[in-house]
Specification:
The complex is a heterodimer of chains A (437) and B (291). With 437 residues, chain A is of the alpha/beta class. Chain A has two domains: 38-150 and 315-375, Periplasmic binding protein-like II (D-Maltodextrin-Binding Protein, domain 2, 3-Layer(aba) Sandwich); 154-313 and 384-435, Periplasmic binding protein-like II (D-Maltodextrin-Binding Protein, domain 2, 3-Layer(aba) Sandwich). Chain A has helices at residues 4-29, 49-64, 77-89, 104-109, 117-120, 133-137, 161-166, 182-192, 212-222, 240-255, 267-272, 286-290, 326-341, 343-348, 356-359, 362-365, 368-374, 389-405, 410-435; strands at 38-44, 68-74, 96-100, 140-141, 144-145, 148-149, 151-160, 205-208, 276-282, 297-300, 311-314, 316-320, 352-353, 380-381. The radius of gyration of chain A is 26 Å and the shape is globular. Chain B contains 13 helices and two strands; from the N terminus they run αββαααααααααααα. The radius of gyration of chain B is 23 Å and the shape is globular. Classes of the chains: A alpha/beta (437), B mainly alpha (291). The A-B interface holds A 1-2, 82, 85, 89, 106, 109-110, 197, 199, 201, 203, 205, 208, 260-264, 266-267, 269-270, 273, 275, 387-388, 390-391, 394, 398, 401-402, 405, 407, 424, 428, 431-432, 434-435 and B 4, 7, 11, 43-48, 51, 127-128, 131-135, 142, 145, 147, 149, 152, 154, 238, 240-243, 254, 257-260.
Chain lengths: 437, 291
């Protein structure tokens, strides 16, 4: 049994600990800083190989700018956006943070990000015309730009040179010849797809669907389809062009059997294993391939399978906290500009810089895959900019998957998704009406 | 009451206090807050202030196909996983109990090992195992001429998730059941053997009845846990193919954090809570009646 005295000692100890920790906290909040550096918090979702690249840049910036301390925090994109958004709504967003152009809209609408036009045009600015027009447009709303585009990452064509040579798809010099149009694409499919181990089932494929979203979005646009009416008041995902595009691929999968049943991302492993001739994947997958020495791959712009050239793309953009001012704003901008100015280092890991001057540099021309993919910049297309992007993409992904898997018809898959998206639009509009008394 | 007794009670509460504080701060308060939230239309993206709509969110959920589909997926998961895990854990616990301590220890550790792997690691691993064209399992099955669409066909996907979950979660119940088995006095078995009872009779007349409290505990905890399944399906199938494995918790997560509809998400959480509560009450009733 304990005696009272011991108990008193115990309780006073606990109180003492609480008191000390309270004091320690007070110290923090009253602003006793360890040094006179301006601290810039920088959040992003670069948890892959790109994380190492950005870390190098941050360290270099910190070395070269002794008066600023950039503290980087990296999280998985999925977790990142939730955390960032909630922090932003509570007014606790980091000073600098990365947002995809496709996710921009809700950050603008929730007034988490600050327009950058004054900074870009300021004394230490960047020439606006140096940004590729469609990339600069991707961060614009009502005449204001809300972020500094760091890069652009379209999907493009990766092809397995060995399989192309084996199938005899070569030019006069005997070099593998990646397809540029529908005929050549179909020709490559039939020539490369075959049954290697002789069990009566194909196990080497001309092309696989990797990410449904990027691939199907590209195809719908190539076929001339639209996702929304121009005013974004109606989803027209079930338009005739879109149905036709989906049907084209379901035929190849289920009737002609030259494309394997889609497995989403996991099919990328097949390309890395050398069992797949062509995959349409992001330039950010390059790092994956570079580390794989036994794979003889090439990179090229997407072939034109439909009527209009198009390629899905997205951009990492640098955003600033809404209420930055004074030395914090200055330091944040200097850091962002540093990243932008040095975005060739960033591009080296599998990105295309957003600035034309860098794209035209000799060094960029030396980055083979990036250089090839950059040829598509004039016709890259971002995901439609709607504030309910995540909900829309959920429906879009489901529609693409259902359509490709062929358990329901292309029309059903697309029209059900369109109906659901229209419901979301209706709900959004009612909310909007409610917010304007 | 004596002073000693008072002081005992005091220390009882004192030692409970740390958990009680955490419980209140992170479970009880959010629970109540969520209940309040579920009565509001609260869309983070909207500039409009949250609006009280009573049971509107609940009505919307009950009238929505996605909700029922997700609840159905959850129920299918629970119906498959609970018998698999409990049966499997029981069988292995019996086997380990029969083994000598030394070699048993190795198997016990081996079977428990997956439990300590985080779901993200296990999920990524198993997604590759399950890949139909390029995965490990189908590479093993290839010589037999079999190609299983583990996670690419609606009718297989949930079973594959269950398979992975058995591997991942079997360890916990197994350890608990093994401890239960060790508690059964050896004399009962000896006496039964002398009376001429075979292995089967010994199992059904000694092991099972004496293990019942532990077994029921394992079953109840497993059902409650299984209703909250999220990590496995989210990592391996992302709810696909065609949303056939999108369980309720995942749908709630997406509603609250992808659609930013906090009120609606809270309402669905409470519906799930009610379902789990009903199941738990039924089970406890059952246990009490039997006793």
């Amino acid at each position: 049994m304990f005696c009272i005295r011991k108990l008193t000692t115990f309780i006073s100890l606990i109180l003492l600990i609480l008191f000390i920790s309270l004091l320690a906290n007070c110290g923090k909040s009253t602003g006793i800083k360890p040094s006179r550096k301006v601290v810039i918090r920088f959040w992003n979702g670069f948890t892959g190989p790109d994380g190492r690249t950005i870390l190098r840049l941050v360290k270099r910036f910190n070395r070269e700018n002794p008066d600023v301390q950039v503290l980087m925090q990296r999280m998985d994109w999925g977790v990142y956006y939730n955390k960032l958004f909630v922090a932003g709504l509570g007014g606790r967003a980091p000073e600098v943070f990365i947002v995809h152009a496709s996710s921009m809209e809700r950050f603008i609408q929730a007034q988490v990000a600050r327009p950058v036009d004054d900074l870009v045009r300021g004394a230490n600015g960047i020439d606006e015309s140096d940004f590729a027009e469609n990339i600069w447009q991707a961060v614009e709303k009502d005449g204001r730009h809300y972020a500094l585009p760091l890069d652009v990452h379209p999907i493009g064509m990766y092809y397995n040179k060995k399989l192309f040579r084996e199938a005899g798809i070569v030019d006069e010099k005997g070099n593998p010849k990646p397809p540029t149009n529908r005929e050549e694409f179909l020709d490559a499919l039939t020539k490369i797809t075959k049954d290697i181990d002789g069990d009566g089932k194909n196990d080497q494929w001309g092309y696989v669907f990797t990410w449904y979203r990027t691939n199907m979005y590209t195809f719908l646009l190539q076929w001339g389809g639209r996702i929304f009416t121009p005013d974004y008041q109606k989803c027209v995902l079930d338009s005739a062009e879109n149905v036709e595009a989906v049907r084209f691929f379901t035929d190849l999968i289920h009737k002609k059997k030259v494309i394997p049943p889609p497995e989403n991302f996991d099919s990328w492993i097949g390309f890395r294993q050398g069992k797949v001739g062509i995959a349409f994947e992001g330039i950010y997958m390059l790092e994956d391939l570079k580390r794989q020495k036994d794979l003889d791959y090439g990179a090229a712009p997407l072939p034109l399978l439909g009527k209009v050239p198009a390629a899905w793309a997205d951009s990492h953009t640098i955003c600033f906290k809404k209420d930055l001012s004074g030395e914090h704003l200055d330091a944040a901008w200097r850091f962002a500009k540093y990243l932008s100015d040095n975005s060739l280092d960033w591009a080296d890991g599998g990105q295309i810089p957003a600035r034309k001057s860098l794209m035209e540099s000799e060094r960029f021309k030396g980055m083979t895959a990036q250089w090839e993919f950059a040829k598509m910049i004039p016709y890259i297309r971002y995901i439609p900019r709607v504030p309910f992007a995540l909900e829309f993409l959920g429906e879009f992904d489901t529609a693409a998957e259902r359509g490709l898997r062929g358990n329901v018809s292309a029309e059903t898959a697309l029209s059900e998704a369109a109906a659901n998206v229209n419901k979301i639009i209706k709900r959004q509009n009612e909310e909007q009406k409610r917010s304007k008394p | 009451m004596t002073r000693a007794k008072y002081s005992n009670i005091f220390y009882g509460y004192l030692f409970l206090l740390p958990y009680l504080i955490l419980f209140c701060a992170f479970i009880l308060l959010p629970l109540i807050y969520g209940l309040g939230l579920s009565l509001f239309q609260w869309e983070v993206l909207s500039n409009a202030p949250p609006r009280f709509i009573g049971l509107g969110n609940y009505r919307e959920a009950l009238g929505e196909t996605y909700f029922w589909k997700a609840l159905g997926a959850t129920l299918r998961f629970v119906a498959m996983i609970v018998p698999s895990v409990v049966f499997g854990a029981l069988l292995i616990a019996l086997a380990l109990n029969a083994l000598p301590e030394k070699s048993g220890g190795f198997f016990k550790a081996a079977i428990f090992a997956p439990t300590i792997i985080s779901i993200s690691v296990a999920g990524i691993l198993w997604r590759w195992f399950f890949s139909a064209e390029f995965g490990l399992f189908n590479a093993w099955l290839a010589p037999l001429g079999v190609k299983v669409p583990w996670i690419t066909e609606n009718r297989w996907a949930m079973k594959s998730v269950v398979l992975m979950t058995v591997w991942w979660t079997l360890g916990g119940p197994m350890v608990v059941l093994l401890a239960g088995l060790k508690q059964i006095p050896e004399q009962y078995y000896e006496a039964a053997s002398i009376d001429g009872a075979g292995a089967m009779r010994r199992f059904f007349h000694i092991t099972l009845p004496l293990l019942k409290p532990v077994l029921l505990f394992v079953i109840v905890m497993n059902i409650i846990g299984s209703f909250q399944v999220f990590g496995q399906t989210f990592m391996i199938t992302r709810g696909g193919p065609e949303l056939s494995t999108r369980v309720l918790v995942q749908y709630i997560y997406e509603t609250a954090f992808a659609s930013y509809r906090l009120g609606y998400g809270s309402a669905m959480s409470w519906l799930l809570f009610i379902v789990i509560a009903v199941f738990s009450i039924l089970q406890f009733r059952l246990v009490r009646e039997r006793e």
